[in-house]
Design brief:
By secondary structure, the protein is α+β, with helices and mostly antiparallel strands. It is 23% helix and 35% strand. It has a two-stranded antiparallel sheet with strand order 1-2. A hairpin with a 2-residue loop joins strand 1 and strand 2. The chain starts with a strand and ends in a 12-residue tail after the last helix.
Length: 52
């Protein structure tokens, strides 16, 4: 996660609290998807979203 801007946000859904990581600074969608693949391999959820 070196060189990435990171923000952790708490959110609630279904009466439960979970934490969302927003990471910014990927060169392109391919790099962001590679990051997600690594997280998915560690049993974490990840959805790459283009920032507008």
């Amino acid at each position: 996660m070196d060189g990435k801007a990171l923000v952790v946000q708490a959110a609630e859904s279904g009466g439960r609290t979970f934490f969302r990581l927003r990471a910014h600074g990927f060169a392109d969608e391919t790099e962001a998807r590679g990051f997600c693949t690594t997280l998915l391999g560690q049993n974490a959820s990840c959805i790459p979203v283009e920032q507008r």
